[in-house]
Write a structure and sequence with these properties.
Layout lengths: L6 H25 L6 H32 L10 H31 L4 E3 L3 E3 L7 H36 L9
Antiparallel strand pairs: 1-2
Helix pairs in contact: 1-2, 2-3, 3-4
Length: 175
């Protein structure tokens, strides 16, 4: 077993990092959009929706790469609890990063909008317009986003723990 992720996995990881950070910024811009500027909100929604689709597709690719290449072992001596938490965090990332774009797509449909992919093309809504469903799905979208931020914080804390406390070169697996 190798001590690093395959090159494909490493660059997919960092691409997902960039895309998720982009989504967090776009989500913050949407949350703080001027109430009377529909054009601004539509532009941000278009970027947010298109980037959500890209995340979904790249996560499918990343899942495929994980199944094909596996994962390197954690550094020797990693406590069992730390190992279990790391694995749980990774599984949750895969699940939530696939689920969140689907929920976002359904939110758009419930609001009566197709998915615009950067203004290049649209994907028809999968569900009909419903304010009640839109509100419910927006709540779920926000909860999943919050969980993703928590997982990111835990992931970064794990990297800090391994880098500065255990000094076991864990970060080298992904760089």
């Amino acid at each position: 077993m190798h001590n690093r992720y395959a090159p494909e996995q490493r660059w997919l990881h960092w691409l997902i990092v960039a895309l998720v950070l982009t989504q967090l910024v776009l989500g913050a811009l949407l949350a703080n959009a001027p109430p009377n500027d529909a054009d601004y909100a539509a532009q941000i929604y278009g970027l947010h929706g298109g980037t959500g689709l890209v995340i979904f597709l790249v996560m499918l690719w990343r899942l495929s790469a994980r199944l094909r290449h596996g994962a390197p072992p954690l550094p020797l001596g990693t406590p069992g609890l730390v190992s279990r938490l790391a694995h749980a965090n990774h599984y949750a990332f895969y699940l939530l990063l696939l689920l969140e774009p689907v929920i976002g797509y359904l939110v758009g449909g419930a609001k009566g909008y197709p998915l615009s992919v950067y203004g290049l093309f649209t994907i028809p809504a999968a569900i009909g317009k419903s304010d009640q469903v839109a509100e419910l799905l927006e709540g779920a979208h926000g909860v999943v986003a919050g969980l993703l931020v928590l997982l990111i914080a835990l992931h970064v804390a794990g990297v800090i723990y391994h880098t500065f406390i255990r000094r076991d070169r864990l970060l080298a697996r992904m760089t």
